[in-house]
Amino acid sequence: MNNLYKKFVFNIVRRYRHSTVSQWVIFSFDVLLFIIAFVVTVLFRYVAYRGDDILLNDLIIKFVLALVLTVFCFLMVGSFRGIIRHAGMSDIGKVMVVCIGAMLISIVLNFVNNQFHPQIVHSQWLLAYRETFMVYTLLAALMVVERLMLQRIYNDYFRRRRPEQNVVIYGAGAAGIIAYNALHQDQTRDYHVVAFIDDDMSKVNQELNGVPVMRVRNVLQPDFIKNKEVSLLIIAIPTIRMKHKQAISNRALDLGLTVKAVPHISTWMNGSFTSNQIEDIKIEDLLGREPIKMDNVNIVREVVDKVVLVTGAAGSIGSEICRQLMRYQPKKVIMLDQAESPMYDLQFELRNTYKNQLERMEFVIANVKDHARMEEVFEAFHPQLVYHAAAYKHVPFMEENPYEAVYINVFGTRNVADLAIKYGTQKFVMISTDKAVNPTNVMGATKRMAEIYIQSRSTDTTHFVTTRFGNVLGSNGSVIPLFKKQLAAGGPLTVTHKDIIRFFMTIPEACNLVLEAGAMGEGGDIFVFDMGKPVKIYDMAKKMIQLSGRNNIEIKEIGLRPGEKLYEELLATKENTIPTYHPKIMRAQVRKYPLEAIDREYNELWQILEGMDDMKIVGKMKDIVPEFLSNNSIYCKLDNCTPPLSTLSKADETK
After folding, report:
1. Buried b (16+ CB within 10 A) or exposed e, 563-601
2. Exposed site from 1, 335, 380, 506, fewest CB < 10 Å?
3. CATH number for the 297-593 domain, one of 3.10.350.10, 3.65.10.10, 3.40.50.2300, 3.40.50.720?
């Protein structure tokens, strides 16, 4: 019989677990509970006082009046409108308001009635008040028990069949409690919070909702994690410092935990928080640094009420420069790129973000190597500032296509630079790369040649500035998006070499430094950014696998690509740096090239370019940039060294 009952209840719960019972059904249950409370009270009075003073007519009148009063209170307070399986303190509070309110109103009515019927003895008054108190006290208890029982049935027959996960919450403050409540109400998984972690010693050894608050060292250690079967750490301190967050995350990942975080309250939907808003920790969170504090006074002075041209505006760096420029009230920002679809996306984004500044934005489709088209743009807008971010940047592609690399990166830059001088641009800021230092590939060499050209072109009216930095986290075509795609496909993650390292910074950080460096530049400057510590790509791949929670993904070493370095440099060995007023920006002291020699060499390269002979093109590049020594490339033979067999066979196939 017991098994039949359990089966019946389970089938009911399973059928309606995703539905909510009509509020009028709950209302009917609550009315039934009032009737039960009233009957129990009458029976108690009958037993206690042997029913000597119970008159049926009076009893019916009292019942009807009390029922009407109680129903009125139900409707006014709305205690039946909650979803029972999610009932909390607010729902219990409504039950208390209904019962206490109805009881007080009933007592007042009894008192008034007795004033108009003085023949009723004092003991009968007390009996009436005692009955009222008993009815509504019993009703409150029954309504609370009803809700708790329904919750228990739901939990016993449904929640215990959901996947279970033991959780540790880092942060025993307000956000930690909110995260705890959100997990408790989750309908997809049964979370068990086994401990809170907090650095505040006044909270340690206390309890929150029956869960102990402990120190980091007592929780994030193998024995505790194993014994409690913890699989998830949630960082519930939205304002936690980056360095601290990285330390906790790395420690948890080393213990095999999945790490998530509660976002800042400003991102919560309508100011409320649910478990599905708890975010995964991203690799960017583990590689990023504390936000660099910028004094934007110089940028404001540089940009406000100016006409600004951004080339390569649809790219990762160019688009972020455009976003940041719009905050400084420029007169107009001309966003130029040859990529139609990304430009459409940028246009859609900025027009929605800056709806009140539409007249400040112009979107232009053009290629920087097209001199006639670029002159048309300069003649139409006369930009006072140019941020030149247009370039081909992928090392393997440019190694296979030196013609395009030189055409865009060198002569495209020459086009824009010459037009900037012709049309009186005040400042020209070029985005360069750490790969321009002692280049080992075509792409890096073209960027170094672009640096050399604009450095020689500074005049009293047009100042040319170069900014150099390494990789940016999450930029188009960078390693992190590649790893994410490989993870989504089930692996493996591919690294070119186990020891390869790179410098990283975030896109907003890099672009903010570009604007700051551009403001401080006086002409002919090359600014180098403090990129922090280099990161081993192999270690990054391991962290991304840990963050994904899929530890069965392998990492495959595929060998260095043509032109690729093991170690990037931000400065050539013969170059020195001097500090600037910004601790993250250094001014590089580099060799100066005679203007006549540069013009002669670049004109010769232009003539060679017309022949489309890759070997001759690269040979001339090496004449212009003597430190350009090819690595793992078919162009190694130009340096009197033997190219690798893989590149030789590839070259034979293309002939």
Report:
1. bbbeebbbbbeebebeebebebbbbbebeeeeeeebeeb
2. 1
3. 3.40.50.720
Other beta carbons within 10 angstroms of residue 388's beta carbon come to 26
Residues composing the chain: 655
Residue 230's beta-bridge partner residues?
Answer: 166
Mean per-residue pLDDT of the chain = 81
Centre a 10 Å sphere on the Cβ of residue 628 and count the other Cβ atoms it contains: 24
**Exposure string (b/e) for 507-527, b if CB count within 10 Å is 16 or more?**
bebbbbbbbbbbbbbebbbbb
For tokens 């600014």, what's the residue? 527
C-alpha–C-alpha distance, residues 44 and 134, integer Å: 10
Residue-level pLDDT at 157: 57
Copy the structure tokens of residue 654.
Answer: 């293309």
Residue 62: which H helix or E strand, with range? helix 56-77
d(C-alpha 621, C-alpha 402), whole Å: 10
Residues 6+ apart with CB under 8 A from 272: none
Of 624, 567, 618, 625, nearest to 599 by C-alpha is: 624
Return the SS3 of 586. Answer: strand
* CA 586 vs CA 11, 154, 389, 462, 477: distances in Å: 71, 64, 20, 22, 27
Burial of 389 (0-12, 13-18, 19+ CB in 10 A): buried
pLDDT of res. 574: 43
Q: In what order do the strands lie in the sheet with 190-197?
A: 207-208, 211-214, 190-197, 164-170, 230-235, 258-261, 279-280
* Mean pLDDT (whole number) for 346-363: 93
The β-bridge relationship of strands 576-579 and 585-589 is antiparallel
Rounded CA separation 579/107 (Å): 83
**Spatial contact of 166 and 228, defined as CB atoms under 8 Å apart:** yes
What are the extents of the domains in the chain?
Answer: 2-159, 162-281, 297-593
The model carries a pTM of 0.69
- Using CA atoms, how far apart are residues 453 and 428, in angstroms rounded to an integer? 12
Tens digit of each residue's pLDDT (9 = 90 or more) over 120-165: 544 444 446 777 888 888 888 888 887 777 766 666 555 555 567 8
- How far lies 136's CA from each of 55, 100, 107, 363, 424, in Å? 21, 7, 11, 71, 86
Total Cβ atoms within 10 A of residue 64? 10
**pLDDT band (50, 70, 90) for residue 42:** confident
Place of tokens 């060292």: 217
How far apart CA 177 and CA 196 sit, in angstroms, is 9
Instruction: Output Rg (C-alpha) for the chain, integer angstroms.
Output: 37
Strands (E), 508-626: 525-529, 535-536, 555-557, 576-579, 585-589
Residue 399, token pair as written in the block: 């190694």
Query: How many Cβ atoms from other residues are within 10 Å of residue 53's Cβ?
Result: 12
> Which active-site residues does the annotation give?
435
The secondary structure of residue 269, as a DSSP letter, is B
Assigned token pair, 33: 């509970």
Residue 197, strand partner residues: 170, 214
As assigned by CATH, the class of the 162-281 domain is alpha beta
29 phi/psi in degrees, rounded to 5: -60, -45
3-state secondary structure of 153: helix
